[in-house]
Design brief:
Strand order of the largest sheet: 3-5-6-7-8-9
Largest sheet: 6 strands, parallel
Number of helices: 12
Distance between the termini: 20 Å
Shape: globular
Number of domains: 1
Structural class: alpha/beta
CATH architecture: Alpha-Beta Barrel
CATH class: Alpha Beta
Bound molecules: zinc ion
Radius of gyration: 19 Å
Length: 334
């Protein structure tokens, strides 16, 4: 695996490192605080206190649950594009748009040249990392996805928009590295919708990551996976985070036909169902992955962000992934 690269960065991980894709459900006190803030019943400082409380809750929970590479859970984010658009120059926040399923988000509008003016995630990274000895992942939304999920009224075309964003998002990546973050995930969930734009997404990711001292991961949702694979392997990251448990798409035959030479974070639980998989079920999925991907290149995690589950469901789903990984470490030859 890129274990050598991780070692150079000062990070030692066990076999089958356990992580998660990024978002966790917000505890009820934080949901209430967000409502109170929207209704102007509490001020921003009061909201931030609850966001910190929830972040601390999730960091401590992951730590004791046996997760190896932690996430801050995105307690302070509404959705993954608007959050960045709110902090970068060049955007206005538009009306509510329906995204996949029954989720709504405020679609940002690009009205002038996009510009990184201040750190976006750094304070949260520092806060989360201060609470644990284990590595906390930096979590960013990739330039291609920010482009695809925004309206563009400024740039000539999709390509110019994406490249413009990539140059600015790189500044946030640099700031994360500067803050001591060594594992950085840059998500491109939109990448699987327009296969003809894969080269653009690859070029943009290159701009974000080139020459920087970190281990990069990218999460991609399944979409039309058959159209973007094996092209997807060209994404310049060390680790691709894939949904292996999505009941609608079986990507295993594609991986079999073109075995990835990257590390793969294997999604071992379905985030869309409330039902918590048994350890046997999860282990069977891991066995399937092991038939194709060498053991030392496998990370394990849930399929996607867990924010749509309840706190209890999210914990139970992650616990079963931890249990399966730990069982494998104890009997690696099985
Ligand atoms: Zn996903």
């Amino acid at each position: 695996m890129s274990r050598e690269h991780l070692t150079k960065l000062g990070i030692t991980l066990p076999e089958f490192p356990v992580t998660s894709v990024g978002s966790f459900p917000k505890p009820s006190y934080l949901k209430k605080a967000r409502e109170d803030y929207s209704a102007q019943r509490i001020d921003q400082e009061a909201l931030e206190r609850e966001e910190e409380r929830a972040t601390q809750f999730w960091i401590e929970w992951q730590d004791q649950a046996g997760v190896d590479v932690l996430v801050d859970g995105e307690m302070y984010r509404g959705d993954m594009v608007t959050f960045f658009a709110e902090t970068m120059r060049g955007f206005e926040i538009g009306g509510l748009i329906r995204s996949n399923g029954n989720r709504y988000y405020h679609k940002p509008i690009i009205t002038s040249a996009v510009e990184w003016v201040q750190p976006i995630t750094i304070e949260w990274f520092r806060f989360a990392q201060s609470l644990t000895e284990k590595p906390v992942k930096g979590m960013l939304t990739g330039p291609y996805t920010v482009m695809d999920w925004s309206f563009n009224e400024h740039y000539e075309n999709r390509r110019d928009t994406t490249i413009g964003l990539a140059k600015e998002i790189r500044k946030e990546v640099e700031a994360l590295v500067e803050a001591g973050c060594r594992i950085i995930q840059i998500d491109e969930p939109a990448i699987s919708v327009r296969p003809e734009e894969m080269p653009l997404a690859v070029e943009a990711m290159q701009i974000c990551t080139e020459g920087l001292d970190a281990y990069f991961i990218s999460h991609v949702c399944v979409g039309s996976f058959d159209q973007i694979y094996p092209q997807l392997l060209e994404l310049p990251v060390h680790n691709l985070d894939l949904e292996l448990s999505n009941p609608d798409v079986d990507i295993m035959p594609l991986l079999q036909a073109n075995v990835p030479q990257k590390d793969i974070s294997c999604g071992l639980v379905d985030v869309h169902s409330r039902e918590v998989e048994s350890q046997d079920e999860v282990d069977a999925r891991l066995s399937k992955a092991l038939e194709i991907i060498p053991q030392d290149r496998i990370w394990v995690d849930p399929d996607c962000g867990l924010k749509t589950r309840t706190v209890e469901e999210a914990q139970a789903k992650l616990e079963v992934v931890v249990a399966a990984a730990h069982a494998r470490r104890e009997s690696p030859s099985e």
